[in-house]
Design goal:
Blueprint (H helix, E strand, L loop, with lengths): L5 E2 L4 E4 L2 E4 L16 H13 L2 E5 L16 E3 L3 E3 L2 E10 L2 E9 L6 E5 L5 H8 L13 H8 L3 E8 L1 H6 L4 H10 L1 H25 L4 E5 L11 H21 L3 E6 L4 H10 L3 E4 L10 H8 L4 E6 L1 H6 L2 H15 L4 E5 L9 H17 L3
Helix pairs in contact: 1-12, 2-6, 5-6, 6-7, 7-8, 9-11, 11-12
Length: about 375
């Protein structure tokens, strides 16, 4: 590289004509708000021309719902409008019982919120645990077509859920953390099933040639203060490490998405052979400085971060430029990718657009020094 890479983490789509505003691959917006936002278009065009982009590809077989909720026993009710939200209820009927999950989205925003998970208690999870696995086929689908469209303007990130993501997603987070203490045996059995199923799909995808980076998400569910380092080792490392080894055997690289307090997690990532992690949040959002993160990661792990979304929302362009300089000083210049800690979930106002441009300008200037 002739400079430090810069990645805005603004979702985009791929077409023969170039990049276009779109949600991350595998996700959907209720409406087409991104393409209706001129600022979004301007930033996506600049990303294509000047930045270094990861295209997030999420295969259908890796949707969390594939692993414990068979499509043959689920059905969705017609969406309903409630106080400006579009609410969807999905029912799962099996074993003489009915479980339901409720999700909601606001038009003009790019995220769907789960208001009610399938599992309200251990008995619901037991029911799901004993249902047959009927996941989507583990096949590359549109991967190679999209990779060709991306060309040299970026790198493919293949998104894979860690087993903890699949299991935690069956519950509300608070309920999951309680069950870790009161029904640990159940959580471990769910983890074993999730790990086996994720691993089987992952191996099939790797044999089909997807890559070059497999990006796991979910470890943040077990970082402090949500859980202890012991919990992290038992429920994240123990199940992610074999998947990491599988990826390496197929010649691909491993990335891990993990927010929050990562001091302990980062050391474990080094031991696991992880190649990249994001977003590497520094104090006060995390529990370490960027210089400490670099010392732990050494020259093995590419640190990808660290500009907070709240900074883009409230700071000045001059502040953003200085933050970029500080990130490079403390975490770079080698094995560093400059990026934000999240993505825009609604239309981009002028102040945030100015800060995105300041971020890119500073990254191109200071990253080439």
């Amino acid at each position: 590289m002739d400079r430090i890479p810069v990645y805005t983490q603004i979702p985009f789509g791929l077409t023969p004509a170039g990049f276009k505003p779109a949600p991350f691959h595998g996700y959907e917006d209720y409406d087409d708000w991104r393409t209706q936002d001129p600022a979004y278009w301007r930033l996506v065009r600049r990303m294509e021309a000047e930045c270094d982009n990861f295209f997030i590809w999420r295969p259908p077989c890796m949707l969390a719902s594939n692993f414990f909720t068979p499509a043959s026993v689920t059905r969705s009710l017609p969406p309903a409008q409630q106080d400006g939200w579009i609410v969807t209820t999905t029912l799962l009927e099996a074993g003489g019982r009915t479980l339901r999950t409720v999700s909601a989205v606001q038009p003009g925003r790019g995220h769907t919120w789960v208001r009610e998970p399938y599992c309200k208690g251990p008995e619901d999870a037991e029911l799901l645990l004993h249902l047959p696995w009927q996941g989507a086929p583990a096949e590359p689908g549109d991967f190679f077509r999209l990779q060709q469209l991306l060309g040299g303007r970026g790198v493919m990130w293949v998104t894979v859920p860690s087993p903890i993501t699949v299991v935690c997603g069956l519950f509300g987070l608070t309920e999951f953390l309680i069950l870790m203490r009161t029904h640990g045996g159940l959580i471990y059995r769910l983890q074993e099933a999730a790990a086996e199923r994720v691993g089987a799909n992952l191996e099939a995808l790797l044999k089909a040639g997807v890559g070059p980076v497999i990006r796991f998400g979910g470890a943040e569910h077990l970082t402090p203060p949500l859980a202890s380092p012991r919990d992290f080792d038992a429920l994240a490392v123990a199940y992610d490490a074999p998947l990491t080894k599988l990826v390496k055997r197929h010649g691909c690289m491993v990335a891990v998405h993990c927010h929050g307090h990562i001091r302990h997690a980062l050391a474990r990532f080094v031991e696991m052979g992880v190649d990249q992690t994001d977003p590497v949040e520094q104090e006060p959002d995390g529990d370490l400085t960027l210089a400490e993160a670099r010392a732990i990661a050494a020259r093995q792990i590419t640190l990808t971060g660290n500009l907070q979304m709240r900074e883009l929302a409230v700071a000045s362009p001059d502040y953003i430029r200085e933050r970029v300089r500080q990130i490079i000083r403390d975490a770079g210049p080698d094995r560093l990718i400059l990026t934000t800690t999240g993505a825009p979930l609604e239309r981009i106002p002028p102040a945030i657009e100015a800060n995105y441009n300041a971020f890119i300008d500073a990254a191109l200037e200071y990253g080439a020094a």
